[in-house]
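Retro notes, item 3 of 5
We never archived the inputs for the zinc ion complex last cycle. Fixing that now. Sequence and ligand:
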Amino acid sequence: MVRRSLRSGKRKLIKTPSGKFYLTRIPDKPNYHHCATCGGKLHGMPRGTQIEIRRLHKSQRSPSRPYGGQLCSPCLKRQLIEKNRSLN
Ligand SMILES: [Zn+2]
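Structure as it came back at the time:
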């Protein structure tokens, strides 16, 4: 049996140019980003390792609105409306 740290993820058979097959491991992806208030999945946030995300363009890393990457859009809308009500 392989090491404990290598037991997660999928395994895939790869064929070499010489015709031999060997088993390789495809690691699990990190979990989705979640909204801070409702806990739902965040759209527009890439799912990958730190290195994979660093390789993306800055505009692809998180939504470019206030609280982008922390709150989902319905929660942000609700919060902004409540803040406006308290000001008036
Ligand atoms: Zn939310």
